[in-house]
């Protein structure tokens, strides 16, 4: 009986010395994996985030999407805003869209809109940057817009005739926003 008590005391002491972050590492770093065969993607995300159940209206049935975010940083939207594709659901979170590329909308069209968005944000006083990155071995384009309160990162790429968009929003005062973004991007897989 005494050896078990010693083990329990040592375990509790380690928890106090190393704190919650060490305990999270021991229990899997507090992350979850989103896996959706319809959307054709999987990625890791913070374990305290929720998957939104809000439905969105798209112009076709081939567009798939998901919204995940911090439930404590959810935006209160009107019913009309909830139906709008352009509205973010979380002040801290990520959305992923998958859309069939077509003659009406291609990756080149997406990049032209991205250039317009960069110019608009820049005119509004945001810090704007862009770079090429790789998502699951696929070339992608990343744009960042930030001000004193938040950062928005848009990543666009194309694979097998589909356009993918990853839109991340984080609050500047949240010291974890960049590690959350990197977790999502580095674990992102296309099926």
Salient structural properties:
191 residues; alpha+beta; Protein Transport Mog1p, Chain A; 7-stranded antiparallel sheet; 3-stranded antiparallel sheet; 4 helices; 30% helix; globular
Structure, described:
The strands form 2 sheets. This protein has a 7-stranded antiparallel sheet, with helices on both faces. It has helices at residues 2-26, 79-83, 107-123, 177-187, and strands spanning 31-36, 41-46, 50-51, 64-69, 93-100, 127-135, 138-146, 150-159, 162-171, 189-190. With 191 residues, the protein is α+β, with helices and mostly antiparallel strands. The longest helix is centred in the N-terminal third of the chain and has 25 residues, at 2-26. The chain is globular, with a radius of gyration of 20 Å. It has 4 helices and 10 strands, in the order αββββαβαββββαβ. The protein is 30% helix and 36% strand. The chain has a single domain (30-190), classed as Protein Transport Mog1p, Chain A.
Unreliable parts: 1-27
CATH fold-level label: Protein Transport Mog1p, Chain A
* CA distance, first residue to last residue: 51 Å
Number of domains: 1
Tell me, briefly, the overall form: globular
Strand order of the largest sheet: 3-4-5-9-8-7-6
Total DSSP helices: 4
Count of extended strands: 10
Do you know the CATH architecture? 3-Layer(aba) Sandwich
**Sheet with most strands:** 7 strands, antiparallel
Report the radius of gyration as a whole number of Å: 20 Å
Under the CATH scheme, which class?
A: Alpha Beta
The CATH superfamily is identified as Mog1/PsbP, alpha/beta/alpha sandwich
- In quaternary terms, these chains amount to single chain
Which structural class best describes the helix and strand composition? alpha+beta
Order of helices and strands: HEEEEHEHEEEEHE
User: What share of the residues does DSSP label as strand, in percent?
Assistant: 35-45%
Mean pLDDT: 80
């Amino acid at each position: 009986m005494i050896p078990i008590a010693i083990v329990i005391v040592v375990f509790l002491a380690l928890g106090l010395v190393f704190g919650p972050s060490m305990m999270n590492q021991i229990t899997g770093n507090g992350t979850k994996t989103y896996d959706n065969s319809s959307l054709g993607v999987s990625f890791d995300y913070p374990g305290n985030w929720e998957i939104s159940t809000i439905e969105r209206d798209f112009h076709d049935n081939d567009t798939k999407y998901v919204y995940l975010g911090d439930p404590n940083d959810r935006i209160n939207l009107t019913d009309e805003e909830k139906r709008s594709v352009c509205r973010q659901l979380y002040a801290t979170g990520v959305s992923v869209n998958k859309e069939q590329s077509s003659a009406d909308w291609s990756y080149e069209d997406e990049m032209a809109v991205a250039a317009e968005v960069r110019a608009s944000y820049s005119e509004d006083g945001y810090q704007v940057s862009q770079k090429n990155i790789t998502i699951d071995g696929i070339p992608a384009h990343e744009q960042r817009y930030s001000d004193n309160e938040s950062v928005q990162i848009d990543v666009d790429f194309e694979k097998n005739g589909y356009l993918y968009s990853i839109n991340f929003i984080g609050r500047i005062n949240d010291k974890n926003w960049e590690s959350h973004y990197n977790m999502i991007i580095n674990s992102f897989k296309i099926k």
